[in-house]
Amino acid sequence: MTAICYEIVTYRTKDTDQADMVREDARALLTSQPGFIAWTPFKGMNDANERVDLVAWTDHHSARVAAQMVANDAEFADFRGSVATVTSMAHYFAASFDPQPVPAGSGIELGRFRLKPGTEESSMRVAYAAMVSRHLTHQPGWRRQHLVKLQDGTFIDLAFASDQDHAEAICAGWIGNADCKHFLSMIEPVSMEFGTIV
Hints:
Order of helices and strands: EHEEHHEEHEEHHE
Radius of gyration: 19 Å
Distance between the termini: 28 Å
CATH class of the largest domain: Alpha Beta
Shape: elongated
Number of strands: 8
Strand content: 25-35%
Number of domains: 2
CATH topology of the largest domain: Alpha-Beta Plaits
CATH architecture of the largest domain: 2-Layer Sandwich
Helix content: 25-40%
């Protein structure tokens, strides 16, 4: 999987209450963009007009596309208008830090499967990693993915999304994708369930 891209923006707003409102509107707009993981908003402890936004993306390309949208699209005009000054804005990565939160309300998909006879686990894992990094991480609402091996030799694909609807949509999006097709050719599905983290 590619390194998570962090966008860190430090700035000052003109009016705290109005800035809070348009900031939340901007965050809601970005949640549907491919590659979005999370937006953590900070306020200054001594001055609430001092702001830092930490936005996590699955890859640098998604972060750059979104930054252009925020800078130019009309739907972000109120957010731009709430900013008095921008101190800095840059992209970073932290390979050892786990940035993909899965809070209450997030959707989850549990897909249980076995390997087809003759399939090497190592080959399946390579195919799984390619499917996740090249396709699934770029789907709207995707948050995190884990492959779990059980004691009986079966596996669970544990996938998290922003909500259950997105979890189901991501799963439906496997159809027709070459990386997903390659992975599916190696496994025998046992069961699939969807739910919501409480």
